[in-house]
Amino acid sequence: MATIGTLLRTMISGEQIGTDQFGNRYYRGRKRNHYNRERRWVLYKGRPEASKVPPEWHAWLHHLTDKPLDETHRHAWQKDHVPNLTGTRAAYHPPGSVLRGGERKRGTGDYEPWTPQ
Q1: The CA-based dihedral angle spanning residues 56, 2, 13, 17, taken in that order and rounded to the nearest 10 degrees
Q2: From CA 25, how far away is CA 48, in angstroms rounded?
Q3: Beta carbons within 10 angstroms of residue 116's beta carbon
Q4: Are the beta carbons of 63 and 40 closer than 8 angstroms?
Q5: 103 with 97: CB under 8 angstroms?
Q6: What is the span of the domain harbouring residue 32?
């Protein structure tokens, strides 16, 4: 949820530019600041998490592009954007992780600990 100040700024001076596949809404201000750049911001759907911003919208938010990129600029080898899953049930836990049972294969014997001379 956005703060009250962000919601007021959005209602008063925000112009919606678009939404992404996660439901986040992107806005720009009607006035320019003293650097002659427009303000750009995002209202997240659900919990605010910066990793939910896809790359094409990240480029627009940080003034790398004038217009948000669309799906036609994607290459065949690019994967779909996935937000950071750390701390969720879908987070990656490698074999041997305590959260995955704590069992792992024994070492193969090629490990030699370093000892100072």
Answers
A1: 20
A2: 12
A3: 3
A4: yes
A5: no
A6: 1-71
Establish if 102 belongs to a structural domain. Answer: no
Say if CB 20 and CB 54 are below 8 A apart. yes
- 100 lies in a domain? no
Tokens 């427009």, residue located: 38
Residue 85's DSSP bridge partners are none
The pLDDT profile of the chain, 117 residues, written as one tens digit per residue, is 578 888 888 888 889 999 988 899 999 987 776 777 888 999 999 888 888 898 889 999 999 988 887 766 778 888 888 888 888 888 988 888 888 777 777 777 777 888 898
State the total domains in the chain.
1
Write the CB contacts of 37 (distance below 8 Å, at least 6 apart in sequence): 63
With respect to residue 45, please indicate whether it lies within any of the assigned structural domains: yes
Specify if 15 maps to a domain.
yes
Beta bridge partner(s), residue 16:
27
Burial of 57 (0-12, 13-18, 19+ CB in 10 A): buried
Q: Check if the beta carbon of residue 105 is closer than 8 Å to that of residue 98.
A: no
The pTM of the full predicted model, rounded to 2 decimals, is: 0.68
